[in-house]
Amino acid sequence: MTNVAIFGVGLIGGSIALCLKGKPGIRVIGFSNRESSVQKYIQRGVVDVGTTSIREAAEQADFIFLCVPVGNLQEYLEKISACKLKDGCIITDVGSTKSSVAGYARSVDLGGACFIGGHPMAGSERSGVEAASYHLLENAFYVLTPDETTPPEAVGRLTELLSYTRANIVKVDADDHDDIVGAISHLPHMIAVALVNQVRSYNERNGLYESLAAGGFRDITRIASGDPPLWRDILLDNRQVLLRLLRDWRSGMDEFAAMLETNDAEAIEEAFRQAGEFRSRMPERRKGMIHSVYDCYVDVPDHPGIIGRIASLLGNNRINLSNIQIIESREDVPGVLRLSFRNQEYLDQAIALLEESGYSVHQ
Ligand SMILES: NC(=O)c1ccc[n+]([C@@H]2O[C@H](COP(=O)([O-])OP(=O)(O)OC[C@H]3O[C@@H](n4cnc5c(N)ncnc54)[C@H](O)[C@@H]3O)[C@@H](O)[C@H]2O)c1
Ligand SMILES: O=C(O)C(=O)C[C@]1(C(=O)O)C=C[C@@H](O)C=C1
Question: What residue ranges line ligand 1, CB within 6 angstroms?
């Protein structure tokens, strides 16, 4: 029996647990410091067994996943290192930063166990076990940060276990990880929050800001709804990298200001061209880097009941919708619905069915 202990069964820990639970020879143990949370994990069927005892979870584990917030990783590594760990036990984490946790792991004595940092590049602005999903990590990149002291055999065993997540494992140096993920995840979160707060302050004087905010604002600001303490920890942990990135960001904004001041139409067009070209090269159907899944857009007349009719049409044909969203809805004009599916097969079936039923569908 392979025992996998998960500390912090929230969005990411719960999603990993759902991928591992029920797999041959695997038993998933959920740890929480609160008894009520342990009961919730068990009732929701996310883990096989649960405990509030660090020792009980750690000492029987062959794999330990630390899925607590970044600010709690040091404390848990210290507490776990004080336990009698199994020889060959692999400890990993899923934190959004990788350099600091590698340092904490080096500073404790793990005996016959070893630490390999990890970070699945998938997630959402939601948190808690309620948001966990078996599909969350599918096709996403999953970064591992072994160093020259990590036994390749241990990396092999962890990679094999993680194959149940259907993520693509990629090895990256921990410092490089923090530079790159700082730019593609942490910086965008700061920008989204600053932008929302800028508009929030205008909205205090005129509520039309909130009413008129449409697709563009929503698309660029979804991530501003991330869990505040979770993001506080991530940003503070990666602050040296982020201070440098913010300097670059400011100079990018200054360049835009200069283009406007000098009426430089060509430079503005060129900036959009370059950005559009780079963005179109990014794989569309990969979760994580861009939060794009299997989506299509349906033109719909703006009258009540249309969402229900489309959802029933798909449901009656056993096509599972993962999300449905009105992205344009004004009185007197047709609206657009964004339909999201879990895989290409559902998307293809949905497009065929909707077109057959007379709807105009775009991708
Ligand atoms: N949210 C994302 O999109 C995302 C993506 C990849 C990685 N991560 C990383 O994954 C980790 C978990 O994030 P999440 O989004 O799953 O958050 P979450 O809030 O959904 O889950 C965190 C879990 O840790 C538990 N927890 C919090 N403090 C604890 C403590 N002191 N002791 C024990 N348990 C505690 C919570 O009860 C919860 O079950 C973080 O390190 C985060 O940086 C997040
Ligand atoms: O899609 C989102 O909402 C996320 O915030 C996921 C996201 C990201 O920025 O891409 C956030 C934090 C992680 O550590 C990894 C992925």
Answer: 8-13, 32-33, 37, 67-70, 72, 94-96, 119-120, 123-124, 127-128, 227, 230, 234
